[in-house]
Every structure is written in C-alpha cells, then in structure tokens.
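Re: the 234-residue chain
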Amino acid sequence: EGTPQGGPLSPLLSNILLTDLDRELERRGHRFCRYADDCNIYVKSETAGHRAMDAITGYLEKKLKLRVNREKSAVARPWTRKFLGYSFTWHKQARLKVAESSLKRLKDRVREIVAGNASRKLGDTIAALNPVLRGWTSYFRLTEVKGVLQDLDGWIRRKLRCLLWRQWKRPATRNRKLQARGLDSTRAWKSASNGRGPWWNAGASHMNAAYPKSFFDASGLVSLLDTQRRFQCV
C-alpha cells in the first residue's frame, strides 16, 4: 500500500503476493488468466461462477488480507467482460476481439487530435495520429475480429475528410479543391454547394472519390487493418 501507480515496484510486489492466489486456483482446478491484480476465472456455469466468486473473495480477504473491488468484479459471460482491453465473441468457438471500451478510448483520442487542431495541415494531423494508431495496433495485434479494424480505418479517414471540408469553409473553395482532385466541374460545384454538414459530406461519394484510401496511404496514414496483417505475417 502506498506504492506509486505505474511504477515497477507495484506489479513486482503484486506478483510476489498473488503467486499464492495462482497456486490456490490451480489447486482448485480452475482455468484462469491473471495480469498483476486483474484476474479472470473461467467456469462452466453461472452457479459455479458464484461459488468461485464467494470462495476466492473469501480467500483473498481472509488469507491474503486484500480488499476485493466488488464494483469491478462480476459473474458474467466472457463476451460481456473485458481483460486488458480485450474481450471475446459470443460464438461457440470464441474469438479474441477488442473490447468496446478500448474502441471508445481510441476514438476519443482520434477526435482529440483531429478536432483539437482544426486549422492544422492534413499532413501534420496525420503525423500526430500515426504514433497513436501504430501503438494501438501493436497492442491489439492479437485480435481475431478484423472487421472492427476495417470500420475504424474508414471512420478515421472520414474524420480527416471532415477536417478538410471544414477548413475549406466556402463553396467556391470546396469547388476548386474537388476539381483539383479530379472531379468534373458540374459534380464538383453541385457537391460544394449542397448545403449539407461536414460529417455528411465527409462520407459522401464525392469526398470518397476525391480522397480515397489510396490518397491516405500515399500520405503516410497508418492503416490499422494493414498494420495488423503485417504483424500476423511476422
């Protein structure tokens, strides 16, 4: 008690102390996964889950003199819980996936970088995003559900298109920029003066045609899906 959070001493001491918990779980024949003070125990039924929860809580509090955080503890299906940012699919042959809370944190960080610097050049915004995206993908490289990464890639590109649309401000500027990216004059002007909001336009066909995935790849934007695939090949 009293060690700094995030320091090297805290996980070392927790592992020394919680080795006894590991041995107790092994003695009881439980399947479990523990990292520092975060532990998931896997049993075959809800009844067995409640039994294990009561027994292990009693062991931790009476034998090891530790306090169990009951607000964060639960008996639940594996796919409704998260562990170190991961969760599971609900299929019989479960697959590892990124937990919803981890997806939300990434989106919040992307919004902070993109919306928090609305006047910054696209290249500078991409440079600020890349370390975050690369580190996030490295951590979640074990995920087996790839569709989420593809959806996130599309959402990030749309955020960047939205940034461009906001920066252009005036219909005349938008018309000129769209024509510079290859749209014909009629389509460019019709798109530039449609009166709809930035987010709608960022997902519309004219912005997708003007700024496709290949444009962002050439601009150096890290693709979560492509990076994860490279990790899988290593």
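The longest strand covers residues 31-35.
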